[in-house]
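Record type: ASSEMBLY
Status: queued
Input:
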Amino acid sequence: MNDAETLDQPDETDETLGSLSRPGAVSGGRLRRAREAQILDAAEGVFAEAGFSGATMQGIAERAGLPKANLHYYFGTKETLYRAVLARILDLWVDAFDHLVPERDPAEALAAYIRDKMHWSRTRPLASKVFANEIIHGAPQVADYLSGKLKRTLDEKTRVIEGWIAAGRMAPVDPRHLVFTLWAATQTYADFEAQIRAVLGRETMDDDVFLVASRHVTGLILRGCGLKPPRGG
Amino acid sequence: MNDAETLDQPDETDETLGSLSRPGAVSGGRLRRAREAQILDAAEGVFAEAGFSGATMQGIAERAGLPKANLHYYFGTKETLYRAVLARILDLWVDAFDHLVPERDPAEALAAYIRDKMHWSRTRPLASKVFANEIIHGAPQVADYLSGKLKRTLDEKTRVIEGWIAAGRMAPVDPRHLVFTLWAATQTYADFEAQIRAVLGRETMDDDVFLVASRHVTGLILRGCGLKPPRGG
DNA sequence: GTCTATAATGGGATAGAC
DNA sequence: GTCTATCCCATTATAGAC
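Status: finished
Output:
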């Protein structure tokens, strides 16, 4: 199909999306890094709003304030640029799972995970949308990341949750499906923001919506797991 | 922007996507209806896999086993065909809310709603993906439906849930955000199926996955609402 | 490194025969 | 009503001047 194999680097410690700069380009150069970030920011927005096929290099160039040819100079092709955007998003999300460790109180750990995920939905909704779009269309670019690094992380966290359950510290919930629900319940405030705004009759997703949403998700999930919220929130 | 206004029919009883056949075409004709369904099925699949921009009329035609020009004969433009696909999906989903009525037991009502929604994720994942894609990209075609009919339905069901809470029949949960969580937790098994399969290490989403998923979502949400599952499920 | 101009492709839409 | 052949535009990518 496509060259998705080049994304998979099972021999390396980190199974991220791999080498994303052009073959001949050295990574250094403060100016280069700044230009790349400028282009990635613009691309994230356009890919989020239009999808991969709907996005145009011209549109990304205009949003970045650069001529179109510069994008090709820095990233070669539209697909490479798209993969670079995805890689940045995965880097962003990988850390939230660190809260789920055996020694921590389950209620505190889950509340912290929800807080972090809601934070990214609030501050980086465009990144979330690009990722959602990629998954809906069958994950052609990130399939190896999902079945590799992400699967191993989920397996590890599944054991943590099973440990909590075995110790009687929370109700017997399917750990993997609990995580699916956590992903869905938090990311919906970024991905489906248009629907939520519409049915709430709001022009914008303000802080107060996210405050209520965070309290709701935390309370509902923790009660669902037989836990009490750690704080008055 | 676009002609979204034509979708809004505030004076009619039903705020669906409105007249979707071509202006001159009479609706009758058994053969016509069959051909339209054939095209809509193919279009749903291609739009789900590729998005609106990524989908090609050629690809839809091949999937339907028809020449490309026939699609234009029946639906005029690509956008009209896309709107017809969306309209069919909304018709499909509108009924699940009927379970949430004041006189019914909250646990039974919510469990029935979850069951129906999981059923659609299981049997019509492509439809769910087309809708998800539309919302992620800002709901350009269904904005009026969301802020019209769907908002009114949600407002009505909010009052039902508030009634249950006021009567002490369930825990005090924000009704609207509860619905957002229900939508997210059920539709994720259709929309994010590629991710779920990848991290579960499965080639296909079989019945057993949906069985576990349904039990999980029902149990977690009902406990989160301070309710006990109505059956042994 | 940056930009203009252009080549090459792909796809939506339609004309017109049957 | 159905289908083939074709038009025309938008878009990716690149050549080559600066």
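Annotation: Chain B has two domains: 4-90, 94-224.
Annotation: Residues 56-58, 68-69, 72, 76-78 of chain B lie near DNA strand C (CB under 10 Å from a C1').
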